[in-house]
Design brief:
134 residues, alpha+beta, Ribosomal Protein L22, Chain A, three-stranded antiparallel beta sheet, 5 helices, elongated, magnesium, transferase
Amino acid sequence: MIYGIGTDICDIRRIETTLARRGDRFAEKVLGPQELQVFLARRERSHARGVRFLATRFSAKEAFSKAIGLGLHLPMRLPDCQILNEASGRPVLKLLGPLADWFAERRLSGLVTLSDESDYAVSFVVVEQAPPAA
């Protein structure tokens, strides 16, 4: 059963401006530990790729927070909602800490997709709830 759906569009230029103004502190407030490693590696190879990675993750986390109905209120913390990629490139949710516990208690699972083009990043999240155990 669908628990919630969320979508978000993010202006990549806004993320780049914020990153330039606040430095890596901004990335550290948004990204979880594994995401931060990917961000730093991508940015080292190409500044634009790093910014796009940060923007897609920011957008996906906003969409996720809408899908679960919490917005940015505890236990939803941006770094605790990681969007990582499988070897195939498919984005997957990896939740941490109290957010992971909250999600599991409600028997939730989530699907995420994200994309970026030119100046915008967009994401879509569907959260499903498993039926109660019989």
